[in-house]
Amino acid sequence: MQILSDHALINRVPTEVLSRIFEHGVHHNNSLVHVISRVSRHWRTVALETPTLWTYIRLNNEWNYGRADEFVRMVRTYMKRSQAAKILVDLDFRFCDSLEEAELFMTELHPHLSRCYSFRVSVVDWSWMEIVAKFTDGMENCLEELNISVDPEESEGDKPIPVLNGVYPRLVSVVLEQAPLQCVFAKASAPSLRRLNIVRHPRYHANQRIRIPLSEYLSALTASEAPITSIHLQSVSFHLDGTEALFQHPQRASLTKLTHLTNLVISHVDATNMCLFFDSVDFPHLERIAIQMDSGHESDNLSWLEHLASASDSGRLSSLHHLEMRACATEDAVLGPIVGALHRLPQITQFGISMPPSGNIGPRLFQALASPSGMMGAWLLPRLQVLSLFGCKDVTGHEVLRVIQARRQAEPGSVARVKMVR
Q1: pTM (2 decimals)?
Q2: 115, 307, 319, 385: which has the fewest C-beta neighbours closer than 10 Å?
């Protein structure tokens, strides 16, 4: 066995290549580092000499309760072996016994947070977040990603605790899970921020809504002229304070201009709140909009599309070319408003429909896409080049072929050819 082991082909792999393979494996599965270091002496030596394998600090359900001393020992070992490499810290304090333990963990991590590029923390209420906030100084020059999660039931009514303080020039991504904007933007600024996501954690009920003031949200999007290119709104309900553009005279209304925004994702937000958002913002460079409705609410779930078309009519969506609709009804009476709105969005080159509530798209939408005349009098989505369909039980492929053939047989220059179906 020893002879076979000594002559194994894996031993011929150069150390630097083996180290790189280990890095990719541990990046996708952090616990793999313990397996790697127990395979052989050679692999253990390579693992110990690869600092990036030891840069992931996670407190999760694998630790459970009553193992505080083990966790502290793990932190000390990892921080020593990671040397000067940047670290990722992911702390779910729901698996921590007490506030005292939380403070012990943060005290142990504090000297190393100056090289933390990704910081994720989940707490039950703001008393836990207050402990976290005491130790977040020193991350200004390294922090790139921030994820904050707060239990909405336990923290309701409490005053939010600002987690950051100062200027964070490298911070490009912020994800808030049931956490208010104040916990990030009350005392901190991120001039390089690219992504701002407000989402609901999967462990909470889908009907729960995250209430945020619309004016405060729009101010955060434009604060310090941060070049935000992508935002995601999930399960959000906007609160109005009377200063929004919709309360002003149409000729004097001042819309919030999101100059750098190119990607907008909205999921599980009712049509009323989407309309409110579309009517308050100017999107001069927005390229992609992806909408996911609540599949159980079919009534009035497409009124947002009319407001989207109105924004296009007014020139506020001049760069939009990619529209995705998920869990949106497309059959029977609702097809009329869809077709009417899509006629007002001729710039769309990529159009996707997925998971309609009934599971069926129906034949009439394909007929509209394949018909240049009749009651409509013009091609629907004349620049369409990419058509995406997913979770549509009634699509056989024949209706899609009819659309492709009809557009290929049209007069040159009257309509674009569909180049891709997926």
Answers
A1: 0.87
A2: 319
